[in-house]
Amino acid sequence: MTPSPAIQAAPPAAKPQRASRAARIRIIATHTFTQLVRMKVFYFLAVFAVIALASNFFNLPQHSGPEAVDTNVLPLVKSWSLGTMTLFSVVMAIVSTALLLPKDIEDRTLYTILAKPVPRFDYLAGKLLGVLSLIFISLLAMDLLMTGILHIRTGMVLDAEITYAQQRGHPQEYLDAVRTDVLKHGPSWSLQGAVLAIFIRSAIVASIALFISTFSTSTLFTTIVGILIYFIGHFQADAMNVYLTSGSAAAKVATGLLSLVIPNFQLFNVIDAVIEGAVMPGLVLLKLAGLGLFYMVLYTVCSWFIFSDKEF
């Protein structure tokens, strides 16, 4: 006898599906981004906007010297803008990352997250991606502002140079050369590559700060050590050359290992060449991206080794 539909056994309830690793990391990254925004870190953007606008449209002392005559003012605009981006991206990378773990412990958010089936590696990766999202959006806004200002200033310089050359009666070939020279210092893909290089460098710095914060006892300690490692990275190549040429065999091995742990930030000096109007080859940018990915993975895995055994 076939049972009626009313008395047929109900289908087994579907088991609640656990979020995938990518979904967990995305949720933690989104929470971290929101957390940093609530901490008013975006106030740095307002400071940058004031500095960028004031340094490019007003007659400040840096624009009154002979180095700021004619087209020379355009490299100054790029130098001030990229320098400000570098400063704030590095500061945001170190300070924001240094604040995360202590803030989660203080708010007891960390205990809530770790009480759930969330692997600690996912927690760290989500935190790092949240910081990088904040830096990326900040640099994007700064880049739009810089490109807009540089575009306007390039047009002003080009008009002045062409008008001056026409009044002097120069031939068309000279006018074309002047146009090419001025536009070389205007907005370009190489300039966008320089901004991307700044982001890659700040991503490495944030990864280092995340690693330090896993064993640090205070936010101040993480910040100071992170800044020191950032400056040491600018002298890493010079120190390695000295030890490899004059040091003992043990010193050479130690130097080689140290060069793998501390990034060589001198590789990012290609940004200075872009400021002077040089073209950034795509291979150089690809090399910097590979370097950034290597150190992000290295320091995140090292952070996980320490954080996985930590008791809260």
Describe the structure.
There is one protein chain. With 312 residues, the protein is an all-alpha fold. It is 74% helix and 0% strand. α5 packs antiparallel against α7 (189-213) and α9 runs antiparallel to α10. The longest helix is centred in the middle third of the chain and has 48 residues, at 120-167. The model has no long low-confidence stretch (mean pLDDT 81).
What's the mean pLDDT score?
Answer: 81
Q: Strand-residue fraction?
A: under 5%
- Could you state the oligomeric state of the chains shown? single chain
What is the strand tally?
0
Rough shape?
globular
Q: What can be said about the biggest beta sheet?
A: none
Order of helices and strands: HHHHHHHHHHHH
Low-confidence stretches: none
Share of helix among residues? Answer: over 70%
Brief summary:
By secondary structure, the protein is an all-alpha fold. The protein has 12 helices and no strands.
Describe the secondary structure blueprint for this structure.
Blueprint: H1 21-38, H2 43-57, H3 73-106, H4 109-115, H5 120-167, H6 172-184, H7 189-213, H8 219-233, H9 236-246, H10 249-261, H11 270-275, H12 282-307
Helix pairs in contact: 1-5, 2-3, 2-5, 3-5, 3-7, 3-8, 5-6, 5-7, 5-12, 7-8, 7-12, 9-10
